[in-house]
Amino acid sequence: MSFSNLVSDIAFRDARVDDGSSQVSHARSHRSHATARSYASTAATSVSISGEVSSQLHSGYSHPLTRAWQADRQLTKDMLIYPLFITDNPDEETSIPSLPNQYRRGINRLVPFLAPLVRKGLRSVMLFGVPLQPSAKDALGTAADDPDGPVVQAIRLLRSRFPQLYITTDVCLCEYTSHGHCGILREDGSLDNAQSVDRISDVAIAYAAAGAHCVAPSDMNDGRIRAIKLKLIEAGMAHRVLLMSYSAKFSGCLYGPFRDAAGSCPSFGDRRCYQLPPGGRGLARRAIQRDMAEGADIIMVKPASSYLDIIRDAKDLAPDLPVAAYQVSGEFAMIHAAAKAGVFNLKDMAFESTEGILRAGAGIVISYFVPEFLDWL
Ligand SMILES: NCc1[nH]cc(CCC(=O)O)c1CC(=O)O
Ligand SMILES: [Zn+2]
Ligand SMILES: [Zn+2]
C-alpha cells in the first residue's frame, strides 16, 4: 500500500467512526480525505511544503473528539441553572403558552417534578415567585418576603428534600408590586432608588435566612449589591450566601414570555429607566465594575445571545469571578418557534447557542433548556 493510499485509508476510517449525525460533518470528512491525498503527493515529490502545511486546518478537527478539543470549554451539567416559577396556589400546574414546556407550579408539585431531574444530574435551580391572588400585590411588594409565600416555602422544602441541590433566588419586586415595576415608586412614577434598595435588600436577607445558597437581585436599582452585602455581613450570613448580580441586564423585547409566566408586566410605562439600553456597552462595563467593587461574587449578563460582546467584556473586566449568562425567555421561545418552522433542529440549535455563550466567556448558563440538556449531555 502506498503512503498516499494509507493516508486516504486512515482518513476514510475516521470518516466512518465519525458520529455521522449531520451531512456537514460527513462532507467535512470527504474534504479531509481529498486533502490527505494531495498533501501526500506533495510530500512524495519532496518540494518545500511549509506554505501548504500551514494552510491545513481540517486535520485539526476531522474527528468528533478533536472537534471537541477545539473548544476552550464544553458544556457540563454543573454549569446549568434551571429557572422555576412557583405560585401561591399549592396544587397549581399550568403551562405557559409563550414559553414552551415550562409551567407555573405550586409548592406541592415541586418535589415530584424535580426528583427525576435531580437524578439526572440537575445541580441548581433559580426560584421566581408568582403570586396569583390579586390581593397579594401592593405598592411595596409586601408578599415578596412573606414567610408563608411560595419562594420562602420552596427554599425550605427544596433544601430539606434535595440536600445537594444549589438554590438560587431571583430577588425583585416586580412580581409582587401592584404596578409591576422593580422597586418602590415616587409619586411621579419613577423609582425611589433608596427605598427600593432598602426593601430589596430586606427581601434578599429573608431568602438567605430561609436557606437560599445564592441571592440574585434583578431589579437594577443602583447600589443594591453593596446594600445586600452589608446586610448579609450584619446578619452573619455573608460567609455562606453567594451574591450574584444581574449586572448587565438590558431592556428590550426578550422578556415577554417571562412576564406572561410571572405576571410581572408593568401596568404603565416600561423598564427603560433602570434596565440598560441595548446599545449601552459603556454602561454595561461601568455596571459590571461597580458591582464587582460593591461585593458581587458572580457577574451576570442578560439576555445572552444578542449580548455576546458584553459577556466577553464581563470576562475581561472580571477575570477572577465566574460570569453567568441568562438565556432568557424570549431567546428560548425564538429557538422553539424557529425549530417548529423547520429553520433548524431544536437540539442542534440549543447546543450551538450555548456554545456561543460559553465561547464568549460565560461559565454558568441559566436556561429553560436545562431539563433537555440533562438528557442530551
Ligand atoms: N426583574 C424580574 C426578572 N428577572 C428575570 C427576568 C427575565 C427572565 C426571562 O425573560 O427569562 C425578569 C423580567 C424583567 O426584568 O422584566
Ligand atoms: Zn423585576
Ligand atoms: Zn427586577
From TrEMBL:
Name this polypeptide is given: Delta-aminolevulinic acid dehydratase
Gene3D superfamilies in UniProt: Aldolase class I
GO BP terms, alphabetized: protoporphyrinogen IX biosynthetic process
Residues annotated to bind 5-aminolevulinate 2: 329, 368
Known function: Catalyzes an early step in the biosynthesis of tetrapyrroles. Binds two molecules of 5-aminolevulinate per subunit, each at a distinct site, and catalyzes their condensation to form porphobilinogen.
Cofactor: Zn(2+)
Disordered: region residues: 18-37
UniProt source species: Penicillium nalgiovense
Lineage start: Eukaryota, Fungi, Dikarya, Ascomycota, Pezizomycotina
InterPro entries for this protein: ALAD, ALAD_AS, Aldolase_TIM
